[in-house]
Design a protein that fits this description.
Protein name: 2-dehydropantoate 2-reductase
Domain Ketopantoate reductase N-terminal: 3-152
Pathway: Cofactor biosynthesis; (R)-pantothenate biosynthesis; (R)-pantoate from 3-methyl-2-oxobutanoate: step 2/2
CATH superfamily of the largest domain: NAD(P)-binding Rossmann-like Domain
Helix content: 40-55%
Radius of gyration: 19 Å
Largest sheet: 10 strands, mixed
InterPro entries: 6-PGluconate_DH-like_C_sf, 6PGD_dom2, ApbA, KPA_reductase, KPR-Related, KPR_N, NAD(P)-bd_dom_sf
Number of strands: 10
Structural class: alpha/beta
Number of helices: 12
EC number: 1.1.1.169
Distance between the termini: 42 Å
Number of domains: 2
Shape: globular
CATH architecture of the largest domain: 3-Layer(aba) Sandwich
């Protein structure tokens, strides 16, 4: 199976390395120092489940260098999506299935404006991983799961083939016949975690144990559920309450990646998280004051503020 990893950071680098180590034909698309390191030294994953070391990997810095693929994992940062999609058109037209494992709930809409509809599958990733240094990915914690499926809910041979490849690579994976709901379920949690840890500059443990901040977290997630349900997504009415209970099971020191990006002065994915909820809610006349507040509080930091 030929798999292209378009965006070889924490998510793409980790899952791509696992699939390559299991014998799949994996081509990584990377850039800058990460590309140079992978080209000369290969790719290494530092992993509590066992390190993965690939002394040689197939890596390119332009998708146009790839002629064919069975699957493309789209794992670039969300702000790169609009620019990245046109590069995928030739692969999609030659039969590649394109799966976005990015955050957010509007990414597939962007894909479908450019790519043939049959080429797009839905996907969700659950992992905490990042580039430790060029050519090295660090995986934090044991969670490393992929969920994917066809948007019409039908079973497909390509989904079964990808599931088999993931299982052989010891990746936690499953097929969903309600992939849109799965995408929104992760979105509800992610919006809540990113909104609160970034605005409050505290990990989830502190936030969930304070009555006021716990209530704010719940309200952020409830607004997100309300927006999703208004768009026809089959989220349970009490899904935000369920996710709050899930937050009680998380390591107390856990934060969202957006909080880490804020600390490092990196660009934020805010426009695709709370700001997206605020925009969708206001268009539909649904009250979203908490997500609007988060959007306003973090507005100064969206573009990043690195001193270098």
């Amino acid at each position: 199976m030929k798999i292209v990893i378009f965006g070889s950071g924490g998510v793409g680098g980790y899952f791509g390395a696992r699939l390559a180590a299991a014998g799949n034909d994996v081509t990584f698309v990377a850039r800058g120092a990460h590309f140079e390191a992978m080209r000369s030294l290969g790719l290494r994953v530092v992993n509590p489940l066992g390190d993965v070391s690939l002394p040689e990997v197939e890596v390119v810095n332009r998708v146009a260098q790839i002629k064919y693929a069975d699957f493309v994992f789209l794992t670039v940062k969300l702000w790169d999506t609009q620019q990245a999609i046109p590069e995928l058109v030739p692969l999609a037209e030659r039969g590649a299935a394109v799966i976005s494992f990015q955050n957010g709930v509007q990414k597939e809409e962007v894909l479908l404006r450019v790519l043939p509809k049959p080429s797009v599958m839905g996907g969700v990733s659950y992992i905490s991983a990042a580039i430790q240094e060029p050519g090295v990915i660090r995986h934090f914690g044991p969670i490393q799961n992929l969920v994917f499926g066809e948007f019409d809910g039908a079973g497909s041979q390509r989904a079964l083939e990808l599931l088999s490849a993931c299982e052989s690579a010891r990746i936690g994976a499953r097929i969903s016949n309600e992939i849109e709901r799965e995408i929104w379920e992760k979105f509800v949690f992610l919006v809540g975690l990113s909104a609160t840890t970034a605005t409050m500059r505290q990990p989830i443990g502190a936030i969930r144990t304070n009555e006021q901040t716990r209530g704010f977290l719940l309200d952020v997630m409830r607004e997100t559920v309300n927006v999703g349900r208004a768009r026809g997504v089959t989220l349970a009415k009490d899904y935000a309450d369920q996710q709050l209970e899930f937050c009680d099971t998380l390591p107390a020191e856990m934060t969202a990646s957006m909080y880490q990006d804020l600390l490092r002065g990196n660009r934020l994915e805010l426009p695709w998280l709370s700001a997206s909820v605020a925009e969708l809610g206001e268009k539909m006349g649904i009250p979203v004051p908490r997500n609007r507040a988060v959007t306003d509080i973090l507005a100064l930091y969206v573009a990043g503020h690195k001193s270098d």
